[in-house]
Amino acid sequence: MRNRKTLAIAAVTATALLGLSACGDDSEASPDAGPDKADIRVWLNGADTPQAARDWLKTTFEKDHPGSTLTIEEQQWEGLVERLTTALSSESETPDVVEVGNTQAPTFTEAGAFSDLSDQLGDLGGDDLLPGFVDGATVDGATYAVPYYAGSKYVFYRKDLLEAAGLEVPTTMAEFVDAAVALKKANPEPANFSGFWLPGQDWRNGVAFLWDAGGDLATEDGGAWTGSLSSPESIAGLETVQTLFQDASGAAKDGNEADPWTPYCNNEIGMMSAPGWVKGQIEDPEAGCPDMIEKTGVFALPGSDGSPAPVLLGGSDIAVSAKSPNQALAQDAVALMLSDDYQTILAENGLTPAKTSLATLLGDDEYAAATIAAASNAKLTPAASGWAKVEGARVLEDLFVDLAKGGDPAELAQAADEQMDAQLG
Amino acid sequence: MATSTLTPPSVDDAAPDGSRPARPRRTRSPLPFGLLLPAVLALGLALGYPLVRQVVLSLQEFGLAQQFGRPAEWVGLQNYRELVGDPYLWKVVLRSVLFCLVNAAVTMAVGVGLALLMQRMSKPVRLLVQSGLLLAWAMPVLAALTVWQWLFDSQYGVVNWLLTKAGGDYAGHSWLLEPLSFFLVASVIVVWMSVPFVAFTAYAALTQVPAELVEAAAMDGASPRQRLRHVVLPTVSPVLLVVGLLQVIWDLRVFTQIYVLQKAGGTTRDTNLLGTYIYRLGIGSGDFGTAAAVAVFMLALTVVLTAPYVRLMLRQEES
């Protein structure tokens, strides 16, 4: 008896589940522009986009399109590739507009996840749009994503602590590493104090040291990409990173780089490399510590030759999901996000606008100078179509955590290269 | 993977005396089969479709582009061949099996221990313990994991703080950095989450043990340990078998706990279990074909690991 009853219950449950999933599928998308009225879902990542910009986008869109609504759903940067992979491939679940990291965009554009924006490109800004970003999202002459903002990381430092340790603002890479180590030595308390804050998983900051030493993550030869972490130059860079991990950083050896303002406001950091919008978080009375801002200075990470080091060109693209049933409305939302009004709000919050003509909006203070200097020599991750797979498998996170643990750079780099070759090939 | 729904605990189905009167053969009515049909159909759809899809996927080269509509290429057993030749898979398999067996054993021991203890408790204390267990069981996984993560946080975690206060050198100690320590934390969380189910089920079974049987054994001079081993445990063993089986299945396919901890720290490659490995392959790196092949492999492993249990259970039902 009991057997049969359980079966029956299982059957009922299964039927109910089937019924539920069937409900989700009735929004048969028309291949054309889609309905006049809809709820447009926009995925923005992390705390990067300031609240003022979000409010402006929502109100303006809803005013321009009576009857339609716009909902911003905030996603974590962490694990974004996985979420986009699942969400974008489902017609019923896909957001209409997504923000995607500029280094992640090529993988999705080549897979056909985004709608072709080539026709709108002129209206959205055309040649005025940040060129590196447009190139990265262009496949066979068609552009599938447009820049949202750019912003390379620069160094935030504590003026008072540097002064107390008798240090000058470093002007070369060697000076920078020495200063980071000296700063840690000068502040034995708290034990987790960082002369330079570098959590173990933070390869996005660490890669600057590799590039500065002349190394690279991967190189292309006749269309095929292979890992080049184990080249002598790359290994020299990784050794610098290891020095910083062991003698300068008090951050968790396996931590990630999220929320740097928490330890910064907690007096645990002398120097840290962070995106410009982190200033807004430090100034935020709830998340940060507004008092600290007057003790804070910034500079672009110096390279070995004294000019700015090649840091990772950070930033985002926006794209319309190819499976979205609301193509026309989604394109309108993208147009609003690239409008001068919206981009001005971004610029006022320390993000480099998507249009080169608006760059002057950044202002001319110390922060703007550091933003411009950091971007002047910034580099992108390899333009290989399989690059997001490397990020998805967390090859570089693992490599840097192992470095922080004290592993041998040459051996670790060799192993990481082999893994990357498999992902890129 | 839903073997769990198919093997309900059937403790009392066996005829009490084992003998059955011979029934006169009659023409069978088709009604029972008709009644079974909807259930079988629903199960076939709900389980069969994903299973078939998975096997098909494992025979294809299926990447991100195929996910968005490009046709997939048949590669036969290529995905399997590559996997079997990859020493990393075997490392993950060994790790998963060990993790599963250790966790299932610890969960069963703690759970049954608690159930036995509950029998001896006064009512208010028992209610308190039961409410505690119920809360632990009812807590949403991610909420619980966030709290656990904070407890073990290397910079601001209360565990490090307490250990440092107690005289240890645990300031900034990362619990997730070394794989062994990572799995220790993971095990604590997994066991904590599954003990309530075992404890409640075992306790319910224990209340069904006839008191006069235990009493008779006591009068015959059996010590408490002997009564437990020879009277109580054999009586509840069918239930324990089923619960143990479920634990093995659950702990083999553990995912959320490992996934969240990997984000918090540790080295992903050194801490992948089958569940997270499949996820990293498929959704992380967009290689759905290989991921499906690992999943099929995992299914086979589950069957192999649980086969002795199922056989034992079937034998008990027959006797």
From TrEMBL, chain A:
It comes from the Bacteria. GO terms for biological process: maltodextrin transmembrane transport; maltose transport. The keyword rRNA-binding does not apply. This is N,N'-diacetylchitobiose transport system substrate-binding protein. Keywords: Signal, Transport. GO terms for molecular function: maltose binding. It holds the Pfam family SBP_bac_1. The keyword Ribosomal protein does not apply. Residues 1-24 form the signal peptide. One of its GO terms (cellular component) is ATP-binding cassette (ABC) transporter complex, substrate-binding subunit-containing. Belongs to the bacterial solute-binding protein 1 family.
TrEMBL record, chain B:
Its main location: membrane. The chain crosses the membrane at residues 33-52, 92-116, 128-151, 182-206, 231-250, 288-310. Keywords: Cell membrane, Membrane, Transmembrane, Transmembrane helix, Transport. The keyword Protein biosynthesis does not apply. It holds the Pfam family BPD_transp_1. InterPro entries: MetI-like, MetI-like_sf, UgpAE/MalFG_permease. Belongs to the binding-protein-dependent transport system permease family. PANTHER family: BLL4140 PROTEIN, DIACETYLCHITOBIOSE UPTAKE SYSTEM PERMEASE PROTEIN DASB. This is N,N'-diacetylchitobiose transport system permease protein. It comes from Nocardioides lianchengensis.
